[in-house]
Each structure stands twice: as C-alpha cells, then as structure tokens.
Amino acid sequence: MSIRVCNSRNQKMGILRFDPKSCGISKTHLLYSSLQSKEDKEAIKDMCTFGQGTYLAWIKHGMKQSRRQGRIEGHKSGELDNLVQNISLLLESGTISDIKQAFSILRVQKEMQSKVLKRLNLH
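-> structure tokens emitted (123 positions)
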C-alpha cells in the first residue's frame, strides 16, 4: 500500500510504501478510519470483495480470449506451414513447373498466396 506524503502547503514530497498487515492494521481501517458502525465496515468489506471479484473475472475473461485467439492464430500458422510444404514438394518433384499451377491445383485463396510467396521467398 502507498500513502502520498505532503508538506503543510500540500506539496507532494514522496510516497511511503508499507504493508499495513505487518503493523496489525487492516486496509479498511486505514482507508476508512472515520467509519464507526459495524454495518459501515461490513459494507466497505463487501465493496472491496466485489471489486476484487470483478477484477478477477475480467482477468479470467481476458485470459480465455487470449487462449482462443492463440488457438486461431496457431491453426492458421499450421495451415500455412502445411500449404508451403505441399507446394514445395510439388515444385521439387517436377510435377509442375510454375507456382501458379500449384496454387490452382491446391485451390489456394488469394490472401494466402501472398503469404506463401513470402514464406518461400518468392515475393
């Protein structure tokens, strides 16, 4: 936890970092020391718990989205690797003499053709 330290003119002088638990003080008491009733203190604890839960839920959602995006990109990369390998084998075998024939035989889509050419250093 950080506390901003100011002088009498309210000019920032620095930041003091410490762990309130090491002093036996709760964050709730430190931040909301003016609260007197038990109900108020419980309400603050509930709000903090809700905020932490919301934060963790968004992190979990972000991780799930990242994994999904990673799988999609990995699948596309694997598809491109397989396509490049098949085109290379066709060209090396002498079955075809032109890369455009390979694109036609393998029915390679236009957007993939430029990626294949780049991967084969033929662009």
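Residues 6 and 13 are 5 Å apart (CA to CA).
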